Known about the structure:
Elements: H1 2-5, H2 9-40, E1 49-52, H3 53-63, H4 65-70, E2 74-78, E3 84-87, H5 89-105, E4 112-119, E5 123-130, H6 163-174, E6 178-184, E7 188-196
Parallel strand pairs: 2-4
Antiparallel strand pairs: 1-3, 4-5, 5-7, 6-7
Helix pairs in contact: 3-5, 5-6
Amino acid sequence: KLSIKENNLEEIWEYVEMIAQSATKATNLLNNLMEWARAQTGRIVFSPIAYDLVEQCQQIIKLYQTIAEQKEINIIGVFPDDLIINGDKDMLATVLRNLISNALKFTYPGGHIKVKIEKESNAVLVKIIDNGVGIPEGSLDKLFRIDNKYSTAGTNDELGTGLGLILCKEFVVKNGGSIGVESTIGKGTEFWFRIPAL
């Protein structure tokens, strides 16, 4: 209230950014919980359509720009001009949101994240690469398992549930694809998923 009365725009803007960041985190958590519940009760129907994956990636990167800027992280997109795929747009949006959100969570201020799409002969490969904290080798096989959830705090003590990556695997598999991760402690992590080409 005092900031508003004094017309302290800089402090007001800081509060606005914090509220926006909290709202995005809460929305991501609620979306994951709802999607997981729907998937487990058979209420999600695989509905593939032809659409531009590059455009979708660009829109999702834009969604996270405020958080990235607040944490001084640069998100770089490396894409072909356009890439029409045949997939479930909502499911793949969930996958992209979770992987980019995770990269932001575990990258230190001043770091960078690369979102890269590569065309292969019969498939499309999407990579989300960060130069963050990395994941211990012994924990990599726990990331996509519901029976052994793995969750740690981010570089700004951001909390997670471990549910996002499990959902990612389920949705990528429903799209006929595969998902994996490579990581080195102190150097960063690369999550990737591969789906069939159109």
